[in-house]
């Protein structure tokens, strides 16, 4: 494989890691382009500017964005969690490719807006449907003095580093888990504890879902006697 060319293409991709191009991330898409498996116009976040840059690197004519892969956003968007509804299941945290979500199991989760790429990957796994995208109100740290193009490039480079760090951490965790396999025999104290924990978790999620349903119903009816923030 032509690694230098892959590096060059990866360097001009937006590093959102959203998968809209049909590949697992920006680098796999760059590899697919170089190997002739993907076209140059499959990245909605990169939009036409990105297509032109890739075309120049490959010395081919640019082409319009293939909107079958989605549409570009006219402005930077970030995810926002409705913290009233969050049940702390950690699904969003596990889905975020750049570690832009903080929170612990069974505790409220929050998006670090300055680190969010707006990739949308946290939205689908949320069982409470409490994550939405909003226009960003702050820039990626250290970019306020840059022009729009420089800001975009800086944000992409920053996201690439965070993505790579996350990949390295996941790899370390995997190795750690492989080195220390925890096995519990059926009927053992550990297995019984796990069953009880699973049942509690299930009950907690069911209770939270019921509570969220109630909050939504009350929000929609606008009942002033039962505003969401007054619920315990
Ligand atoms: S930002 Fe573009 S290249 Fe990267 S994963 Fe998303 S669609 Fe693919
Ligand atoms: S918080 Fe959500 S939208 Fe933002 S980068 Fe993480 S997964 Fe993507
Ligand atoms: S997926 Fe939804 S409910 Fe679960 S922790 Fe994230 S925001 Fe909260």
Give the SSE layout.
Layout: H1 3-12, H2 26-34, H3 47-58, E1 77-81, H4 91-95, E2 101-102, E3 110-111, E4 131-135, H5 148-179, H6 189-221
Antiparallel strand pairs: 1-4, 2-3
Helix pairs in contact: 1-2, 1-3
The structure holds iron/sulfur cluster (SF4) (3 copies).
In short, what is this structure?
The chain is mainly alpha-helical. Helix content is 44%, strand content 6%. Helix 1 runs antiparallel to helix 3 (47-58).
Structure description:
By secondary structure, the protein is mainly alpha-helical. The protein has 3 domains: 67 residues, Electron transport complex subunit B, putative Fe-S cluster (3-methyladenine DNA Glycosylase II, Chain A, domain 3), CATH 1.10.15; 108 residues, Alpha-Beta Plaits (2-Layer Sandwich), CATH 3.30.70; 42 residues, no CATH class. The protein has 6 helices and 4 strands. Strands 1-4 form a two-stranded antiparallel ribbon. A hairpin with a 7-residue loop joins strand 2 and strand 3. Helix 1 packs across helix 2 and helix 1 runs antiparallel to helix 3. The longest helix is centred in the C-terminal third of the chain and has 33 residues. The protein starts with a helix and ends in an 11-residue tail after the last helix. The structure holds iron/sulfur cluster (3 copies).
Instruction: Name the hetero compounds present.
Output: iron/sulfur cluster
How would you state the average pLDDT, rounded?
Answer: 86
Give the overall form: globular
The CATH class label of the largest domain is Alpha Beta
Q: Which topology of the largest domain does CATH recognise?
A: Alpha-Beta Plaits
Stretches where pLDDT falls below 50 for ≥5 residues?
223-232
| Structural classification | mainly alpha
How much is the radius of gyration in Å? 22 Å
Helix content: 40-55%
What is the count of β-strands? 4
Strands of the widest sheet, in order across it, are 1-4
Query: What count of structural domains?
Result: 3
């Amino acid at each position: 494989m032509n690694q230098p060319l892959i590096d060059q293409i990866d360097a001009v991709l937006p590093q959102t890691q959203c998968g809209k191009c049909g590949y697992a991330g920006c680098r796999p898409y760059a590899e697919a382009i170089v190997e002739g498996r993907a076209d140059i116009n499959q990245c909605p976040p990169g939009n036409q500017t990105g297509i032109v840059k890739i075309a120049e690197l490959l010395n081919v004519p640019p082409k319009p964005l293939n909107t079958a892969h989605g549409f570009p956003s006219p402005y930077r968007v970030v995810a926002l969690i409705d913290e009233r509804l969050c049940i702390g299941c950690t699904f969003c945290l596990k889905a975020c490719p750049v570690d832009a979500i903080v929170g612990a199991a069974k505790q409220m989760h929050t998006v670090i807006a300055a680190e969010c790429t707006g990739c949308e990957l946290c939205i689908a796994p949320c069982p409470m449907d409490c994550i939405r995208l909003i226009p960003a109100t702050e820039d990626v740290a250290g970019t306020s003095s840059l022009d729009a193009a420089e800001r975009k490039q800086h944000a992409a480079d920053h996201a690439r580093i965070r993505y790579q760090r996350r990949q390295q951490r996941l790899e370390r965790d995997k190795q750690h888990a492989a080195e220390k396999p925890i096995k519990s025999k059926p009927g053992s104290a550990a297995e019984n504890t796990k069953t009880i924990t699973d049942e509690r978790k299930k009950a907690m999620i069911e209770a939270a879902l019921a509570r969220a349903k109630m909050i939504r119903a009350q929000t929609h009816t606008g009942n002033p006697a039962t505003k969401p923030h007054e619920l315990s």
